[in-house]
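for the writeup, i need someone to sanity check this before i put it in the appendix. the sequnce is what the collaborator sent (i think, or maybe the updated version? ugh). structure was predicted straight from it, no edits. if anything looks off just tell me and ill rerun, i have time this weekend
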Amino acid sequence: MDAPLEIEDIDEGLTRGQKCKKWLKDNLLLLLTILGVGLGILMGFLMRMANLSQQNIDYFAFPGELFIRMLKCMILPLILCSIISALANLSQQNIDYFAFPGELFIRMLKCMILPLILCSIISALATLDAKTSGKLGGRAVAYYAGTTLIAVIIGIVLVVSIHPGKGDPSKIERAGSSRRVSAADSFLDLIRNMFPDNIMQACFQSYN
């Protein structure tokens, strides 16, 4: 009987510097993201110590003002699309076409949630002193840890009690039919993917 073949390690023969360089190359996006968050927090503290004027604060608030203006600009088209969809006897495909701008708008909102939260946290920390920031951070960590523990306990209890997913898959009744994809649907899907609803997922997810 032949002995099993040994799989050679692909990193065998690389020096420590080459391994570090390879690791940095594979995790460059993650490192830059963490560095950006750290620099944002540091800039928040430094800007608090700089005692900026109202004019400089307005300059930093300009991107958020543009975002609010975009929200106001999209209100009327969304209302019109909702009225047309409710009154007209349209097919599902036409309804999807009318709903496409609103879907892009919702995706942009979801994409902006995380940056806005980070900016709000940095702005709030910049207005607090070190002692108050420490107390607030400790309470936030305790609240997060407590809610996470409660969620884990509830999840374990539910899994043990109701056993989700248990059963015979062959007894599941399947209904409906698949929709035929047209060239217009493919084009709209291409535009839809240009506005990810999760900015972190867009940074780390890759397609083969």
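The chain has eight helices and no strands. The helical segments are 16-26, 28-50, 54-60, 62-87, 92-126, 130-162, 183-193, 199-204.
thx in advance!!
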